[in-house]
């Protein structure tokens, strides 16, 4: 049986990659600057997801014959967002999960509509 060993050099390579990645550094700087607005980020994203993304599976299933999996994915993403927003996760995680949720929902729309 083959096993993978995690060397400290691999962890150092990943750390150096993240430090040299300008996009990641910009995201970290932006997220850290939004720490005082964490509740606002949560409320706006929560209302947006509840109003815009939760009805999407109903429309996709009715008009485009989408499977029930779209409903499961949307509901799991919504409740996962509630967990991330209402517990002790930081602003970096909240913004990253919000972006991930938006991307997944928009991808589902694109798959069934296009």
Automatic annotation (TrEMBL):
Keywords, A to Z?
Answer: Membrane, Transmembrane, Transmembrane helix
UniProt KW Transmembrane keyword: yes
- Residue ranges annotated as transmembrane are 39-56, 62-82, 94-113
The protein's name: Uncharacterized protein
